[in-house]
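As noted in the main text, all predictions were made from sequence alone. Below is one such record, for MerR family transcriptional regulator.
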Amino acid sequence: MFKISEFSKLAQISVKTLRYYDQIGLLKPSHTDSDTSYRYYSADQLFLLNRILAFKELGFTLNQIIHLLDDNIPVDQIRGMFRLKQAEIQHLVEMEQARLNRIGNRLQQIEKEGGIEAAHEVVLKKVESQSIFSLRQAASIQQIPQLFDQLEHAMGISSSNSLSKIILWHGCEECEDAVDLEVGYTLEQKTTSLSSHMHELPEALTMATLLHRCQPTSTCTASIDLGIWIEQNGYRIQENEPRREIYLHPDQSDRNYYIAEVQIPVVKL
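Prediction:
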């Protein structure tokens, strides 16, 4: 038998952790002295502790490990717990990969400063009313391609169609990671066959616009740059009007990017 301090050294785990495992019923000492309350552990318990640490390394919580160590738990239940953990980790990997891709895109933008991004100029112009066929819902920006796929299916067109893509950013104060956005295609004229998803964007007498190079599924600084210009030049954003982003054509140097125009309706202060 080993004192808790000795067992701690053998297992390379702190005495505090062993006491906590005893407290929650995960790893009880083999013997506890009734007079001194000293905890004693057997050498066989090192194998049990190694299993606990192995499960912990796989990402299981201590409560889950208690169930996994239960001799009465069915094999199917253990298999199910491992599959759930596998799916959870896979989801985390995909999220981190998406984050890594966004970092790469951001680095590309930084490296290209002084090129096309530096040539941006804000232009004030009147924008006529226009008909769009659109789909609106709360979603992350990474879901934009899927929303366009849904829209194209409803319209009966392919992504190679020459219609201009437009995204309306309505904002979403209570959506957490999702944004209230609307994806659509601008139409030359109204058509009754698409009336269920079609509506009219109102005319904007003064629209602050900025051309930029971007990817639809990644954030860029164009809106920030335009917002700074609006503030510095004595304008304010018109209330209850979404920010518009029109994708004009793919970038010839990299087909993953578009040349797009950000449009924000403004009024003079």
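Residues 125 and 207 are 5 Å apart (CA to CA). The longest helix spans residues 75-111. These features were considered when defining construct boundaries for the mutagenesis experiments described in Section 2.9.
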